[in-house]
Amino acid sequence: MNPNSALLAGLVAGLAIATQVGPVSLLLVETAVATGPRRGVAAGMGVAAADLGFATAAAATGGAVSAALSSHKAEIRGGAALVLAAIALHGLVGLARERRGAGAAPAARRADAGARAGAQFARFLAITAANPLTIASFAAVTAALSLHGLAPAAAFVAGVGTASAAWHLLLTLAAGHAGRWLTPAARRLLAVGGRLAVLAIAANLALHN
Fold first, then answer.
1. Angstrom distance (rounded) from CA 55 to CA 6
2. Residue ranges for the chain with pLDDT beneath 70
C-alpha cells in the first residue's frame, strides 16, 4: 500500500472508530455539556491522543497485536467491562457526593472531576487508554492492511489522528455550546443518564463474554 492509500485508509478507519456510539463518547458529550466547550475540547483531544497512540502501536506491530489479541477475546471483553463499570460507578458516587455537599451552587454542578482543561485531557486519555476494545479495533484494521514500510505506516497513523481529532473537536464544541442552553437539573440528569448508559454497556459486555 502506498502512502496516499494508507493516509486515506487511516482517515476512514479513524473516523469509523471515533464516530461509534460507545461509553467514551457518552462520557465525552456529558463532560462537554457540563463543563463547557473549552474543557470539552480538551477532553476530546485526550481521546484523539489515545487513538493516535493505539494506531501507532498497531501500525508498528502489524498483525502481531491482532493475532495476540484474537485468542484472548473473552479476557478483553471482561477487562473492558470491569474498567467501564468502575468508571460509571465512580462517576455516580461523585455525583451523589456533589449533590449532598454543594447541591445549591450552579457552578458546582458545572464542575467535573478535573476543573482544568489539562485535567480533562489527562482524564480522557486515561479512560480511552484503559479500554482494551479500542486497541483491539485498531489492531484488527491494521492486520487487514498491507502497511509495509515506514512511509505507509506513518501516513496511516496521520490519517487516524487527523480524523479522530477533527471528529472529537466537532462533537465537543457542539455539545459544549448546547450545554449552555440546558438548566442545571437537565445537566445533572444527562450526567446520571450517561453514567448509567456506560454501566449498561459494561453489563452487556460481561453477560455476553
1. 12
2. 62-72, 101-115, 209
- pLDDT score recorded for residue 50: 92
Task: Give the residue numbers spanning the domain of 149.
Answer: 3-207
**Coil, strand, or helix at residue 208?**
coil
Number of domains in the chain: 1
Query: Exposed e or buried b for every residue in 185-205, given b needs 16+ CB within 10 A?
Result: eebbebbbebbebbbebbeeb
pTM: 0.79
Q: Do 156 and 4 form a contact (C-beta atoms < 8 A)?
A: no
Render the burial of 13-36: b for 16+ CB within 10 Å, e for the rest. bbbebbeeebbbbbbbbbbbbbbb
Closest CA to 54 of 130, 118, 107: 130
| Residue given cell 466547550 in the structure block | 37
> What values do phi and psi take at 2, rounded to 5?
-80, 165
